[in-house]
Amino acid sequence: MRLEGKTALITGGNSGIGFATAKRFVEEGASVVLTGRDPTTLERAQKELGSNATAIQANVADKAARERLFASISEKLGHLDILFANAGIAKQGSIANTPEELFDEILKINVTAVFLTVQAALPLMRDGGSIILNSSIAATAGVAGSGAYAGSKAAVKAMAHSFASELAPRGIRVNSVVPGIIRTPIWGRNSTQEAGEARAAKLLARVPFKRFGEAKDIANAVLFLASDESVYVHSTEIVVDGGLTGSPSAVPG
Q: CA spacing 20 to 30 A to 163: which of 5, 130, 156, 236?
């Protein structure tokens, strides 16, 4: 098993990409702590993942919640080998119709909370560990109506490179996974179903494989970055988007 004896934290691990990754980690022998804000989906995740997973309700954007989370991890696991900073939101809005409060919310959850989660995890991270951040093709795809979200995900990619330089002396690898159009609940959660489907359809027309990705596709990439198979992979990005950004000329006519 590729993660046997490893300990991991996955934020936003109660659904979508986070849950699919937690499932793969447990299958590969890791002891996993997963967080989320929804107690119902957390309970469901805990039941499905079994005794090698611990679900903790926590909003990592909240300082007190983070402190409780990492105190609990210290008590239950003692240390961390892997951090997947996955929690985030994908709220949309045009330049004209994005209020300051929404812009602040997106950056607080997608950027500030990611930075502070890594900061809080470092005292528990063992040398030689792996930190994976979750970015998005939105950072470079130029999707209209996604300015705040795209900016937040570009910031995640930039932070990953800075973290990688700073943590290299400890042998801690820092990389990003960059999902494309992935079939997860986030599409319908932060916009109307119609708006989400319309946005997805525009992007899907640019995907050579002509299909949505699945959460497990991202989970498999994260598993590689978390495992010892990637011990010489550092400060880079794995794009999992079916060729949307890299091979646009391959789109069928």
A: 5
Question: Quick count: other Cβ atoms within 10 Å of Cβ 173?
Answer: 24
Residue 94 inside a domain? The answer is: yes
* One-letter identity of residue 175: N
DSSP code of residue 146: B
Give the residue numbers marked as catalytic.
149
Position 195: which residue type? Answer: A
Residue 250 domain flag: no
Q: What is the pLDDT of residue 30?
A: 98
Pairing of strands 213-214, 182-183: parallel
pLDDT of 56 > 90? The answer is yes
* Residue 209 pLDDT exceeds 70: yes
Q: Compute the C-alpha angle 180/182/185, nearest 5°.
A: 140
In a domain, 95, yes or no: yes
* 43-49, Cβ contacts within 8 angstroms, sequence gap of 24 or more: 44/14, 45/13, 45/14, 45/15, 45/19, 48/23, 49/22, 49/23
Tell me the two tokens of residue 29: 């022998």
- Within-domain flag for 116: yes
Taking only the tens place, the pLDDT of each residue in 9-39 is: 999 999 999 999 999 999 999 999 999 999 9
Give me the number of domains the chain comprises.
Answer: 1
**Whole-number pLDDT of residue 146:** 92
What's 199's domain CATH number?
3.40.50.720
Strand order in the sheet with 53-57: 53-57, 31-36, 7-10, 80-85, 125-134, 173-179, 237-240
Write the DSSP assignment of 191-226 as a string of letters.
S-HHHHHHHHHHHHTT-TT-S-EEHHHHHHHHHHHH
